[in-house]
Design goal:
Order of helices and strands: HHEHHEHEHEHEHEHEEHHHEHEEHH
CATH topology of the largest domain: Aspartate Aminotransferase, domain 2
Strand order of the largest sheet: 2-8-7-6-5-3-4
Oligomer: single chain
Radius of gyration: 21 Å
Structural class: alpha/beta
Strand content: 5-15%
Length: 413
């Protein structure tokens, strides 16, 4: 049976086949499904293993979900059209489809001016991070990482019983690369999240290059993974991708994802780029058929639509500037964000802030030790969402005896 785009969207609940509602009042938001909402509730309830809770009950009012660093707009029209066009191939394995995974590998390779053998696909960048830990750490070769940072590699290593060395971020909430250097000798893997999640800070291209060179001198067998999940959102001119560095340097590779700026978190597509000797061990550990034919088509279309990406970067920057100013007007200090989220000193525990916001229909991020007593991570939604959310922040952060005068005296953070 032929499936049109209008019919497809109608099945998802969009009246008349219109584009999915990306506003706060829409239950179906292209970039954000129920997974984020239910997973966040599960974490807030204390869950850590065994999967997220059941989806929210039908009839619950929609909330502003700014807790999982998702793109609130979702993918562009070219991506939606590509997904619908690929429906007829849904019965094929990715390698056997007319537009197969090899085509995506070739597209990524051409974009970054590398060979296809330098590209590895993954089910989001998380699969790549996990296989890196599996492949390069051991009971005798530790993982070096930051605290706080994206926890995927850390959690994987600990579940395997492999040693982990965590170095707390510096006074500017950037990765403490000098501190990490003191622990790299004999390490199996060094994880560098740049920009860093949850602190949203970034290091310059020169700083990353110098760090890699020093690691190579101290411990040449150590592998360095540079996670650039938020690469597309960076506006700092001193920053550059580390892909050319990875291609020129043994034991270095870069991970990327379509989950963030490309608005495809639910499609689960990521990739790694590095030298063949680094990529091959990861390829052997990856799950067969780990990406879908719809994800392949979506990713190819996304890479072929640079205007949409530029518009998304502009939109995010405007929302970021607005939200940061609103929080700083409340007396809340934000880190220097280069991503689609803010790490904010809220003057109370993250749990207290999260609970207060949730009571008014706004979901913000989970705890991030060792700063769970003072800081919260706030993802960026649409401008309309953040205008509503910042009004909630003002109310939640108002002192108990506040009289509603606004500004720093009303809500010191």
């Amino acid at each position: 049976m032929s499936v049109t785009r209008r019919g497809f969207l109608s099945r998802l609940g969009a009246p008349g086949g219109a584009a999915l509602d990306a506003t706060v009042d829409g239950r179906l938001i292209a970039a954000r499904g129920l997974e984020a909402e239910s997973a966040e509730a599960w974490q807030q309830a204390g869950g850590r293993r065994g999967g997220p809770p059941a989806a929210p009950r039908e009839g619950q009012p929609p909330s502003i979900r700014i807790s999982s660093n998702e793109n609130p707009i979702g993918p562009g029209q070219a991506v939606l059209d590509a997904i619908v066009a690929q429906f007829g191939e849904a019965g094929r394995y990715p390698f056997n489809a007319k537009v197969g995974d090899r085509k995506l590998v070739e597209t990524i390779a051409a974009l970054h001016k590398v060979k296809p053998e330098n590209v590895l696909l993954g089910a989001g960048s998380q699969e790549i991070l996990k296989t890196a830990v599996w492949g390069f750490t051991s009971p005798a070769r530790h993982l070096v990482t930051a605290s706080p940072t994206f926890e995927n590699a850390t959690g994987t290593a600990r579940r395997m019983g492999h040693p982990v060395v965590e170095i707390k971020v510096d006074s500017q909430f950037r990765l403490d690369l000098e501190g990490m250097l003191t622990t790299v000798r004999g390490a199996g893997l060094v994880f560098v999240n740049n920009p860093n999640n949850p602190t949203a800070t970034v290091h310059s291209a020169k700083t990353i290059t110098d760090f890699v060179e020093r690691v190579r001198r101290i411990s040449p067998d150590t592998v360095i993974l540079i996670d650039e999940a938020y690469h597309e959102y960076v506006t700092d001119p001193a920053y550059e991708t580390a892909i050319p560095l990875a291609m020129a340097t043994p034991n270095v590779f870069v991970a990327r994802t379509f989950s963030k700026a490309y608005g495809m978190a639910g499609m689960r597509i990521g990739y790694a780029i590095g030298g063949g000797d680094t990529i091959k061990p990861l390829a052997r550990l990856g799950m067969p058929y780990n990406i879908s034919v719809l994800g392949v088509a979506a990713a190819i279309a996304a890479l072929g639509d640079p205007k949409h990406m530029e518009a998304e970067r502009t939109r995010n920057t405007e929302v970021r500037n607005f939200t940061q100013k609103a929080l700083e007007d409340l007396g809340c200090k934000c880190t220097a964000s280069q991503a689609n989220f803010l790490f904010v000193e809220v003057g109370r525990t993250a749990a207290e802030f999260r609970s207060g916001c949730a009571a008014q229909g706004v979901q913000v991020g989970r705890d991030f030790p060792p700063f769970e007593g003072s800081h919260a991570r706030i993802s960026l939604g649409t401008m309309a969402e953040m205008q509503k959310a910042t009004a909630v922040f003002r109310d939640v952060l108002r002192p108990a005896n506040g009289t509603g005068g606004g500004g720093r005296e009303e809500a010191p953070c």
